[in-house]
Amino acid sequence: MHPSAHLLASAPDQLLPARELMAFTLASHIILVPLGVALPLITLVMHYRGLRHNDATALLLARRWSAVMAVQFAVGVVTGTVLSFEFGLLWPGMMGRWGDVFGIGFGVEAWAFFLEAVLIAIYLYGWRRLKPRTHFLLGLPLPAAALLGAFGILAANSWMNTPRGFSLDARGNPTDVNIWKAIFTPMFGPQYWHFVVAMLLTAGYMVAGVYAVGRLRGRRDRYHRLGFTVPFTIAAVATPVQFVLGDSIARSVFHKQPVKFAAMEVVWKTDTRVPEYLFGRLHSDGSVSGGIKIPLLDSFLAGFSPDTEVVGLTSVPPDQRPTAVQATIAHWAFDIMVLIGSALVLLALWYGLVWLRHRRLPASKWFYLGAACAGPASVVAVECGWIATEVGRQPWIVYQNMRVAEAVTATHSSTLWTMFGLVIVVYLFIFGSLLAVLLKLRTRWRLADARSAGRPGDEPEADGPYGPRAAVPAGDGVTPSRGDRP
């Protein structure tokens, strides 16, 4: 029997359902994270533009985006809370032994959630109730609160990748905990900034994609142009920055987690002049089938020289490295992320060149098709980044200190599969409700714009956030909220 087959056979029965449940909830939650982290900043940029230029259209967009921000935050709190419980329920071995070392990250995230909830409530309340300048200033802490939440969760995850800040006693339990070293581990900086910029460009492309679709459907009014331009510009500026940060974090993994790097690049034996494989499948004998092989490139990308030595998977025993299947999964996730990132760089360059040369938006239908796809593609890239990070670390849940199998719950596998099924049903309801609310908001806003456009001399944007709203004609089938009444 091959060593990897022996490892799978000796794994506890509950390991697979626990992994599947955690993977599903994390993959679901991460769809909301870009908007949770970056939409406050994008909204405030639009808000600032509206105040600076006395632009009613920009203020209207900012107000509407703040409503979306609140809805997705409410759902994100639910899915994020489920993840927090799962850490304790599914992985008690890790939390019981290591919670005192890295648990501060989860504490920071929890406080950031509470702070952001209060700030979002104040920001929503402020439309039409506070002076414009005061309202904007009260919204400024929102991006900082969002970044604080990201700080907490990235501190915990980077510690799992490069654990620091403790000593081990004779029984292998952590002692002499140094909180600062546990937070600011070698992978924290590269992971944090790579994540934050990823959230910024993903949220920018997601928001701009809505208006790109509107453009493709013939809506070319100023409302749609501005709604597209501001978030897309933010995302386009962030994209080449992210490409550089992505290269930096890959180099950090090469130095700090060489076995994970070997899995991501399907390198079997330690060697120099290592080729780069685009996709392809790693087999248990070390061979790679399929994909595109580029000689010398992996060594060159790792150390800017074909003579750079790249550590292979066989540098450690089989029970301390990912299996061939896990390495292939990490490799494909990494390659898909890089492929999407490269396509987004080209899209951003297209946008920038047209703007610099002609001082206008691109006119090509193909550009807006690409912009409409950029949001979903960015979410896929974020998902792939997490897959590469987590699967490439296998079999460790705490790198070189605790295996995943040691941390998993003792709950019977059938119970975990039942929980998994229930979570899927609940999440379908949650995300279905989110979609229904967003569609309801869209319909309401379109009706409001149509009413405003029907008045001679008015445009859809005329009903600004800091002025009295137009009365809703009786019998139009729409019940105004308190904020919609004159």
Characterise this structure:
The radius of gyration is 25 Å and the shape is globular. The protein is mainly alpha-helical. The protein has helices at residues 3-10, 15-52, 56-90, 92-102, 104-126, 132-139, 141-161, 179-183, 188-216, 222-256, 258-264, 297-303, 324-358, 365-391, 404-407, 413-453; strands at 167-168, 174-175, 276-278, 281-282, 288-289, 292-294, 396-398, 402-403. The chain has 16 helices and 8 strands. Helix 11 crosses helix 13 (324-358). Mean pLDDT is 86; it is low at 1-9, 456-463 and 470-486. It has a two-stranded antiparallel ribbon with strand order 1-2. A two-stranded antiparallel sheet has the order 3-6. The chain has a two-stranded antiparallel sheet with strand order 4-5. Helices cover 69% and strands 4% of the residues. It has a domain at 13-187 and 413-486.
Protein structure class: mainly alpha
Count of discrete alpha- or pi-helical segments spanning 4 or more residues: 16
Strand order of the largest sheet: 1-2
Nearest-integer average pLDDT: 86
Report the C-alpha radius of gyration, rounded: 25 Å
Into which percent range does the helicity of residues fall?
A: 55-70%
Spans with pLDDT under 50 lasting ≥5 residues? 1-9, 456-463, 470-486
Q: Write down the secondary-structure element order.
A: HHHHHHHEEHHHHEEEEHHHEEHH
> How would a crystallographer describe the biggest sheet?
2 strands, antiparallel
Q: Tell me the number of strands.
A: 8
Measured between the Cα atoms of the first and last residue, the distance is 77 Å
How much beta, percentage-wise? Answer: under 5%
Shape: globular
